[in-house]
């Protein structure tokens, strides 16, 4: 019952809906008492040996009227109570989604995507059930069960009521206990089924890799094992189901047997009329659902409460990247200026002892380009992540036009940055919408200009419905280079003060790379660009190149200065040049 208290805020908000819904439910319970009673009166008429058609007609009319009224009442309570449950679902889902949108990188490091999806689906459904099935079973078990029992006592006989109903509480206990097992088994079976689905999807998506590495047989064996496990888990569902159904039949059957024996005795004694016994039997039918409802109620409330706690715990987590220290007087014009990094030390929150960046210090003037190079894992992406404020805790500061980025409102800062990440994400929609993602109202002309600058326009014209071609699972699959260029077009459309390319040209050929870089230089004359790359040709024209090793700057300067230095950069440059020449010979 605690969960009703926890959801008090919702029931208070939806007070009118629930008061009317519960009123309709109570009226339904009372209207339900009429047909059995009328059935009894009809039977008594028959028992007299003659039929008074006028009285009989009135009874028939009463049954028809009760049926129509019941129909309407049921419609109204369903509309109100199920409507309430749907509203709660909507509100919980929006709350969670907004929360997910607000959270930062550390939150997504702590929680796996699958778990977050489960909270947003299974837990929300369990909470929604409290506001729908929970309210229904509570009112039904109390009002329908209570009023039917009172009707049995008043219209029939209190001794028969007590004795005949003795087995029914076992129905409630059975529904509660077995229902819980059944539900658990069902959850496990659903989880097993989704694991099987994931496996199938992964194997089908990775079929080329599987075959190339000759792993087909092993994968089939692993799949067969998983199918066997899933079947075992499913068998448990059938086991609990097989115990559950006959239990209901047994208990209800027992109730009828007691009624026939004891009730029959009372009829032969003339304590009861035949009509009363008929009414009683019909009332037993009315009692079955409320007994099940009590059992279900416990399950619904327990599950709802556990799910609500889980969701609350998640919602309680506060994002660490906030506008807490923001100066809201700062707007986009105030941050046009030098980008200055003065980082003494940075460590990721999950490994605070491990220094990932040390002494990263440089200044870029508007219009300048920075090149970040170095071995894998040397800290290039981390430097970028700090500018994007994915992490705020570090020794030192990063400033834009002299303003600490942690004091710039997030919206203002991020609006001025276009970021092309290593793993670019495309949505399953049209090419046009994917490019216009940063500015959904962008004109076709602007979209085409952006894709021309990223050397993508000609590729798009080759596609089945050019800019309206769908990409992703239901549309064309794009090559790695096309995906990268589409992300660049998306970033260029935003035309921000700072553009970040994180290994964003790795999948395009050298010629395309040169074309894109030269159009970028023209486009971004007064704007700042950061390029992290493995291929040194991507950064050779940069105003400043930083070579990183284990999170520290080990070489710095322009391309010419670094070649003259004859260190890691010069060595890599020679190697990459040699590779290019060999490649050209082979192609030729
Ligand atoms: N979220 C994270 N939590 C903890 N450690 C991380 C995290 N992301 C990266 N690291 C570690 O920080 C170091 C720097 O990684 P980073 O991604 O910045 O390197 P990189 O130079 O961009 O590498 P690559 O060239 O492969 O993109 C690596 O040792 C990496 O394992």
UniProtKB/TrEMBL annotation:
Cite the CDD domains for this sequence. ABC_6TM_TmrB_like
Tell me the PANTHER family matching this sequence: ATP-BINDING CASSETTE SUB-FAMILY B MEMBER 10, MITOCHONDRIAL, ATP-DEPENDENT PERMEASE MDL1, MITOCHONDRIAL
Q: What is its main location?
A: membrane
ABC transmembrane type-1 domain location is 21-303
SUPFAM superfamilies according to UniProt: ABC transporter transmembrane region (SSF90123), P-loop containing nucleoside triphosphate hydrolases (SSF52540)
Q: Which residues are in the ABC transporter domain?
A: 341-575
What is its membrane topology? Multi-pass membrane protein
Q: Name one Pfam family in it.
A: ABC_tran
Which keywords does UniProt give here? ATP-binding, Membrane, Nucleotide-binding, Transmembrane, Transmembrane helix
- Asked if Ribonucleoprotein is a keyword of the record, the answer is no
Please identify the protein, giving its name as recorded: ATP-binding cassette subfamily C protein
Species of origin? Lactobacillus colini
Q: Recorded GO terms, molecular function?
A: ATP binding
- Origin superkingdom: Bacteria
Taxonomic classification: Bacteria, Bacillati, Bacillota, Bacilli, Lactobacillales
